[in-house]
Amino acid sequence: ATPTAVMVATGVGAKNGVLIKGGDALERAQKVKYVIFDKTGTLTQGKATITNAKVFNGMDRGEFLTLVASAEASSEHPLAKAILEYARHFHFFDESSSAKDSKHHGNSSEFSGWLLEVSDFSALPGRGVRCVVDGKRLLVGNRRLLTESGVTIPQHAENFVVELEESAETGILVAFDDIFIGVLGVADPLKREAAVVVQGLRKMGIRPVMVTGDNWGTARAVAKEVGIQDVRAEVLPAGKADVVHSFQKDGSVVAMVGDGINDSPALASADIGMAIGAGTDVAIEAADYVLMRNNLEDVITAIDLSRKTFSRIR
Ligand code: ADP
Ligand code: MG
């Protein structure tokens, strides 16, 4: 392709909201063999909503939600926002809540006086959060977090979590004073176009893959829904780049599509890194392509553009 053709293609991309950082990136995309998608915020809308809050030890529901929200208040994770929103709603808009305080209604999102004081907060990547309330350890996160901390998950709670996972939801488990106390169910629906894009890639001879830090149960259910067979789950943030490398081993050209801070090493390692425009700045910086419309169809647009610009046969 002539430099003019590359310039024209870059312009066509930009007009469609596909920002391409340089001619090399544009050229590499024609040969892509694997497209690895991050799950949360990339294949899914990244808008987590709490569907369920199940208390298992007889603790008052409001008390349970206050504990969980207090732990998540210091977290930057997208899940944290959803949990806080849910707990706040329960306290300020639910008739059955005893903690409801009429003085603060209407402005509840500003008011954080209902949260408990926490100390020793830490965010544990790929696991959840840990802190101390009333001198007791509070854990909010996945199975890995609880088991690694020596907390036993009762069988009936485990069954409930599996049920959530089978319907593509994620269970967030909670332990207080190292005793299991309850579960929150989180749903994050697929983007409308996700399944069509996956099928479209396959028609182009490209193999779709999904990678996620989420658990295997949820990952399998989401992958099935979107039509992806090749799944890597429970991948710690540092491991996503290793997944990219494993697909590059035989010389295959690999594209990675992601939105999170977690995804940036993988975006940088891939032959073609594609960041979702609504994603974090770190991801956008690490990528070769930015999909400004946040629409996965633009993964296909980008590859098509490269093929049309560089293939000899038109
Ligand atoms: P992803 O690849 O889905 O972005 P992360 O590595 O951010 O995954 O998180 C993996 C898993 O760790 C989440 O699915 C969740 O179960 C758990 N987790 C992480 N952060 C939190 C948090 N702040 N609260 C509860 N659970 C969390
Ligand atoms: Mg993500």
TrEMBL record:
One of the protein's GO biological processes: copper ion transport
Keywords: ATP-binding, Copper, Copper transport, Ion transport, Membrane, Metal-binding, Nucleotide-binding, Repeat, Translocase, Transmembrane, Transmembrane helix, Transport
Major localization listed first in the record, in broad terms: membrane
Single GO term (MF): ATP hydrolysis activity
A GO CC annotation given for this chain: membrane
Positions in coiled-coil regions: none
Compartments it resides in: Membrane
Sequence similarity: Belongs to the cation transport ATPase (P-type) (TC 3.A.3) family. Type IB subfamily.
Protein name per its UniProtKB record: HMA domain-containing protein
UniProt lineage: Eukaryota, Viridiplantae, Streptophyta, Embryophyta, Tracheophyta
